[in-house]
Amino acid sequence: MTTSNTDDVDPAVRAELARLRDSIDNIDAAVVHMLAERFKCTQQVGHLKAAHQLPPADPSREAEQITRLRRLAENAKLDPAFAEKLLNFIIAEVIRHHEQIADGTQ
After folding, report:
1. What is the pLDDT of residues 30-55, one digit of tens each?
2. Residues in the chain with pLDDT < 70?
3. Is the CB of residue 69 less than 8 Å from the CB of residue 83?
4. pLDDT value of position 8
5. Residues 6+ positions from 65 with CB-CB distance below 8 Å
6. Using the 8-state DSSP alphabet, how is residue 77 labeled?
7. Which residues contact residue 95 at a Cβ distance below 8 angstroms, ignoring those fewer than 6 apart?
8. 56-62 contacts at long range (C-beta below 8 A, 24 or more positions apart)
9. Rounded to 5 degrees, what are φ and ψ at 98?
10. Rounded to the nearest 5 degrees, what angle is found at the Cα of 73, between the Cα atoms of 47 and 69?
11. Among residues of the chain, what percentage have pLDDT more than 70?
12. How many CB atoms lie within 10 A of CB 46?
């Protein structure tokens, strides 16, 4: 494993690196908080679905969301394939939660 030694790096470069890393840390925190808020909403959806005997998954809604997210990613200059993988991961977790709610294990 390679370790980085920044002792001999220009102080201005170190300062810029620190500034950028602080921004990344703030963005990561915002992403985590946004995901937590999203899951609060999807938990409510899961309870509503369970109360009305609706299936945990909704393939047509999921397909619409993937199409929408890919378009948003393209507009944001983010790789749409990456965005789709991320959304598929999130959807799988949401469905798992919905199944647990329907089974009464959550």
Report:
1. 999 999 999 999 999 999 999 999 99
2. 1-6
3. yes
4. 87
5. 87, 91
6. T
7. 56, 57
8. 56/95, 56/98, 56/99, 56/101, 56/102, 57/95, 57/98, 62/91
9. -65, -40
10. 25
11. 94
12. 23
Please say whether the beta carbons of 46 and 97 come within 8 A: yes
Q: Tokens 């980085």 map to which residue? A: 4
**Given this model, what pLDDT does residue 36 score?**
98
Whole-Å CA distances, 45 to 40, 55, 91, 105: 9, 11, 13, 16
Tokens encoding 71: 């378009």
Token pair 């899951």 is found at 39
Token digits of residue 67: 């199409």
pTM over 0.85: no
